[in-house]
Amino acid sequence: MPEPGKKPVSAFSKKPRSAEVAAGSPAVFEAETERSGVKVRWQRAGSDISPSDKYGLAAEGTKHTLTVRDVGPADQGSYAVIASSSKVKFDLKVTEAEKAEPVPSPAPAPAEAPGAPGEALASATEEKGGSPSSEAPDDPIGLFVTRPRDGEVTTGGSITFSARVAGASLLKPPTVKWFKGKWVDLSSKVGQHLQLHSSYDRTSKVYLFELHITDAQATFAGGYRCEVSTKDKFDSCNFNLTVHEAVGPGDLDLRSAFRRTSLAGSGRRISDSHEDAGTLDFSSLLKKSSSFRRDSRLEAPAEEDVWEILRQASPSEYERIAFQHGITDLRGMLKRLKGMKRDEKKSTAFQKKLEPAYQVSKGHKIRLTVELADPDAEVKWLKNGQEIQMSGSRYIFESVGAKRTLTISQCSLADDAAYQCVVGGEKCSTELFVKEPPVLITRPLEDQLVMVGQRVEFECEVSEEGAQVKWLKDGVELTREETFKYRFKKDGQRHHLIINEATLEDAGHYALRTSGGQALAELIVQEKKLEVYQSIADLTVGAKDQAVFKCEVSDENVRGVWLKNGKELVPDSRIKVSHIGRVHKLTIDDVTPADEADYSFVPEGFACNLSAKLHFMEVKIDFVPRQEPPKIHLDCPGRKPDTIVVVAGNKLRLDVPISGDPAPTVIWQKTITQKNKVPAGPAPEAPGDAGASDEWVFDKKLLCETEGRVRVETTKDRSVFTVEGAEKEDEGVYIVTVKNPVGEDQVNLTVKVIDVPDAPAAPKISNVGEDSCTVQWEPPAYDGGQPVLGYILERKKKKSYRWMRLNFDLLRELSHEARRMIEGVVYEMRVYAVNAIGMSRPSPASQPFMPIGPPSEPTHLAVEDVTDTTVSLKWRPPERVGAGGLDGYSVEYCREGCSEWVAALPGLMERTSMLVKDLPTGARMLFRVRAHNMAGPGAPVATKEPVTVQEILQRPRLQLPRHLRQTIQRKVGEPVNLLIPFQGKPRPQVTWTKEGQPLAGEEVRIRNSPTDTILFIRAARRAHSGTYQVMLRIENMEDKATLVLQIVDKPSPPQDIRVIEAWGFNVALEWKAPQDDGNTEIWGYTVQKADKKTMEWFTVLEHYRRTHCVVSELIIGNGYYFRVFSHNMVGPSDKAATTKEPVFIPKPGITYELPNYKALDFSEAPSFTRPLVNRSVIAGYNATLCCAVRGSPKPKISWFKNGLDLRADARFRMFSKQGVLTLEIRKPCPFDGGIYACRATNLQGEAQCECRLEVRVPQ
Questions:
Q1: I need a surface site. Which of 742, 962, 1013, 1242 has the fewest CB within 10 A?
Q2: What pLDDT, in 10s, does the model give residues 554-569?
């Protein structure tokens, strides 16, 4: 295991990661090496993988890919990739393929109200011509499953925007906010035209949030934004709403586009027929000849100019208009509006100025365009008063005709400024607002575990380069004043927090906060301790051999001293000391008897001492005469085998001195135990005794290889048995036999191979709390031949790849309580086993788990009401709910002096109030309430004093609302719903009467509750008018209230209308009051007249109070009818009183003689009131030549170029409207230049004007 805080050198620049794949799908693993040409091998369960139908291998440069096709349960397991000396392991987990659960289709947009002037053109929740998908995507982007889409609606219509959020991985509902413009929060504007709805589908586990707009107005158009956030995630989506004006039938008039009008923002209509009266603006017609279109369609209305609306509105309307258009800076708005009103004179340099303000998102492009009155005028662009110079591609200046455009590409926050366009001594200004998107965290912080004095570096990656972030420790911001300890570093999108030398006080939770979220990680600092991974072992070597003492410690920077019998050992040519990484070695060549001693290694700075002993093995050779029998010279020869211990992976060398004359033959054999019988007792001492036991059967394997991993080398005086890289299979009893003609000798050597333990099984997690849990595991199946000294525990966040060690001292037990975890974060655990040889491989990770604590106790528990058998309780939610959310509440009660609590309701309840029923009358009870979540119940909150279950007598009292103390008026047909609250205990008896009589009939209904009484009439009639009385009674106590109900209707028409007198232009009328006034006062009369010829009625008098009147200003010679309507608070009468006969206005006897006029001749020869002018245009852009002519009769018009008639050329279009003549040249080229003439001819003569046209090619 690499040491925390250190990164081992690897041949891979990108390592493959473990994956979880559904059965039947392919699995792809990718790895990248530091350099190309490196041989890469893929393995599964220790065996190399070769290309086949199942596995696909690909290599391209430094990128290497392994593809597992049609993954099944058999493919689950551990894989590895090997390059040079680096090996990376990863796992493949196969899950069952799950069918996506259908998501219910969104509710259709509400139907438009009857009579609305328009209807929705497109739904925001579905595309035009299609329907939304009924299934949620498997891998949604961000938090949204379905994002709100742009929508269009006509004025008065309705539209609904929908957003869906996946809730399968969320512990509590997400927070959703809707905005209009940049900052206007729509949650505070909910009302008649705007509603917000939310729902949750438990089947598909999807949250649905809706923004519903009814009776849309033109001011509702603009940009909207939906933001959704959870505890550790954030996402947002922008969309637009377009509101179209309702277009009525009828012809469209071309001249309305040029008629001077005072209506700002009115649409333009185009037509080729009908001449309407009005003043035409011919100058606009000449300047904007491109507006002539034969298409009669209406252009989309332009977006409203809020500054023009504010300029024309009164100051009392400023706040309402600002809210409708999303303006929040009211002070800046008033300042800018004041400057605009000060300069209202018409500009002489600009035809079209800059808009008051522009808005653009960061990184996008913006174009600022003006139109000049003089196309040849020089223009300067200023930014914050400084002239903008052309520099690269950042600022682009364009000039096309009279238009001047400044284009700013890749806008940044530095471009948020005031801009001005200067032409001569006149200028126009605007402001550019650069909208910065929220900065999101793309790679979170990771927990770290370090020792005191080590360097700590937190790294986090955000979505925006150079973004402003804040570093916090335990909720407190780390400022620049603490730079002596903390160092902040920015590298593009990566942000670093560096602590050079960590102390115990630096431990805690560190957070990086941005405008779009925050990342949290924990730093654990432990005191510096040294751990011995491998200690030095005793050695027994012979003369001239090499002795190597080796140990491994946890810190590769630790130095140490080697001692011999307590004295420091000085290296020389025969004694060498080395330190490579964490391994320290002492090598002694050509061992002599003087080297036999106690050797120790003492690390510097730690109270630690590693000791071992070197034994010198003497070879005893006795002088023998010729024909000496063979003999093996060992310290302990005999039948009882000597045990030789070797660490797995190390080299095993057995050097056996021999003697004999002639030279003996050496035979090495290894005893193999048959496995067909289970040993029932201890093994025999030697293979020769196998015949005396029925439980053990041995076989012997001859070892005679002279090359390879296991080899035997024999010389005259010794035989050497060597094993390179000892393995578990090399363990056993080795028999050495020497023979010659004189005799033989035999020795048994027992070799034991010890190794690190096997990896333990995956640990199990239990007793999960708010920030702790209990981890349990089983010992490894094989301890490596050495007893397990303890265990090391590690944890990591589920989405992280960094494991953090939890203990430095070995754990002796098989369980451990892990603490200091973050609530709501998913963790995994794994464990290592450690013996004297070293540390095992890590166990598989435990099942993911999340620390969740129960909620705190509810607050403000109070008794709301008490009766003889019930008690009503209410409380407020707990102050701390935690990441587990809140599942509900449980209510319990017990008698005073008793300890047995009884549940008031089975299960949990979500409301914060409850009525506890069936309690014994007169008993004194205690109540308590607990909050529950997935972690279990929280602490209870109980009533401070016992509650006596007995109702308290309270005098009845009616609480008559103020609006019911006056006469209550309702129209006929309207519902009547009169609610009167009251008090009284026990529950009072309620009695209603009308005019002293009990209420009768089913039309008037009474509804009573413990706290109020309601008088309800579904449809009121005149008969329901009268005086009502309500009375409360409790035993001999009572309270009364009186209500006066008046049901009103429309009045009947007036009576007996007649004409009293008619004289000159006047008629006198008289009538009587209506017979039925509708049960209310008559407000007045409406008098109308109608011409006998047309019978169209016109109102003469309104709200007239008298019953007689004089109608004047009548036309002589016409006959008139008259009628009168009566009015009250409900409205006018349904019918009117009408005169039966028409009244004629007589003509006086006056004779009129027509005057005589002399006939005039209006004929006139053609003449040009505005001749053609020379023009210079750019090739490729449409050009127009305009002039104006007069003449009577209407002259015939002809156009010529260099004397040639242009009527047959399709590239030229000619228009003649109201004396204005226009020649349009479509996309001219240099050959279209020349002398153009316009000739007008009629019976009185002809006229002609000419101009020169120059066509320039852009450079």
A1: 962
A2: 878 888 888 888 888 8
